Amino acid sequence: LAMSVTTVSTSPFEGQRPGTSGLRKKVAVFQTPGYLENFVQAVFDTQPALRGGTLVLGGDGRFYNREAVQVILRLAAANGVARTVVGQHGWLSTPAASCVIRKRRAQGGLILSASHNPGGPDGDFGIKFNVPNGGPAPEAVTEAIYDRTRSIERYLTVEAAAVDLDRCGAASVGGMAVEVIDPVADYAALMQELFDFERIHQLFNSGLFTMRFDAMHAITGPYATQILERMLGAEPGTVLNGTPEPDFGGGHPDPNLVHAAALVEMTRGAHPIDFAAASDGDGDRNMILGRHCFVTPSDSLAVMVANAHHVKGYHRGIAGVARSMPTSRAADRVAEILGLPCYETPTGWKFFGNLLDAGRITLCGEESFGTGSDHVREKDGLWAVLFWLNLLAARRQSVREILDEHWRRFGRHYYTRHDYEGVDATAAQALVDRLRAMTTGLAGQAIDGFTVAYADDFAYTDPVDGSRSERQGIRIGFGDGSRIVYRLSGTGTEGATLRVYLERYEPDAQKQHQDTQEAMAPLIRLADGLAEITARTGRAAPDVIT
Length: 546
Ligand code: G1P
Ligand code: ZN
Prior knowledge:
Layout: E1 3-6, E2 23-26, H1 27-30, H2 35-46, E3 54-59, H3 65-78, E4 83-91, H4 94-103, E5 108-112, E6 124-130, H5 139-151, E7 154-157, E8 169-173, E9 176-181, H6 185-194, H7 197-205, E10 211-214, H8 220-231, E11 239-240, H9 261-266, E12 275-279, E13 286-290, E14 293-295, H10 297-307, E15 321-324, H11 330-338, E16 342-345, H12 353-357, E17 363-366, E18 370-373, H13 381-395, H14 399-410, E19 412-423, H15 425-442, E20 446-447, E21 450-457, E22 460-461, E23 468-469, E24 474-478, E25 483-488, E26 496-506, H16 516-519, H17 521-531, H18 533-537, E27 544-545
Parallel strand pairs: 3-4, 3-5, 4-9, 10-11, 10-12, 15-16, 15-17
Antiparallel strand pairs: 1-7, 2-6, 5-6, 8-9, 12-13, 13-14, 17-18, 19-26, 19-27, 20-21, 21-24, 22-23, 24-25, 25-26
Helix pairs in contact: 2-3, 2-5, 7-13, 10-11
The chain binds 1-O-phosphono-alpha-D-glucopyranose (G1P) and zinc ion.
């Protein structure tokens, strides 16, 4: 039944190294004959466990999602996959895919998404492979897939009618069993185990609490509508932009202060809502807001660590916490005081995988709006929102009160990230190389009133498998607890993106309520001066301030 089709041996990765975010390109590129097939066949050729096994398949609903699902089903059948579990309409959020892979003990999953990148015919498409623990493929796997894409000469497919993706139930493609599942059910059941739905329901019922969740026309719409409005009793209309659109309504589905500005506005003014949150294209990022208050992702992680015992699924305590290196050290402070292990890992979710699998950590997070736990192996947007809801319901306090109390107890880590986008790649690399060379002689020096305590280029040895990752970003720490981190983005598409992460520790409760950019102005000036940012990039100011 299976037929072999000769295909090009130029790798679909051309011009892009394989990261854990998989393959990301413009939709038009994915539509070229053999392009998607090349990647998918390389997965089957390098992952023999899928033969006779179970594959999970779904995506964030962006343009080309449906077509790609049908292509992949035919390739899966030809490659001897026994059963493919696919979300209705071809939908699965990234964390839900992770959940389904684990729950159904699948041999892997293919997730169709380009995360927060815009979609539509002129937008981006993407695909990535997740391994049986539900997490992104580790480097050895992505490298093997990459190598295979460069030598591949054929892909296997079958001739078969398209599966009706809109109807849940059993189907088949070329002898392979296909199960079209409700994309929300497994995930919602897991959330019900982790959070006190009864208590959250009471909070919504009290009539004293208003919330809005912005799904940004992306995949979390159906998840949030089912869980928040139907299961937890939030009033209809709580979920905004809840229908996934192939082009995300023309927007940029990235939950931050810029792209979710309308939501942020609802937490301000004369009649602010109590709680607001948003998630991104594929549902793994989150933004948390209270009345007149934005919770930085770094603070959110620290608050979760300090309050885990209030939350049903974590009430027995947590094993430890990990944060990516540029994330503020707010969580470290909590871990230190509570006597919990705390790990600093390189940027990227994949570095949490071993720590989670080994049971060394329970919670983890990144400053880039990513938070999660050992319940799946991806960061999880809606999970973070439910964690906060459980906390608000248990403590009967506002977001503001919880944050203020947290800062009083642990100190505040003022935090901001400045991004310089589309910078000349050579200039950006030279800037970082110069800083790296400088790090050796910096310690002990006093510059503009700041004394350098340490400076290095962050390197990480995985405590579980001993693997080493070097050159993960320049860290410069100061005597007063401030810190500057410089690194180049690994996900940008045009030129280079320089990210500058700034952090200032303020233990004095009287000084914890300043405007962030003002409170950090001297450090921001120092960061520019040290790295010669303006001179070397020609930019007087960052493009994006978070
Ligand atoms: C960015 C974030 C990083 C995150 C990654 C994937 O990577 O900074 O924390 O893991 O996206 O969502 P970067 O562009 O900085 O390399
Ligand atoms: Zn994402």
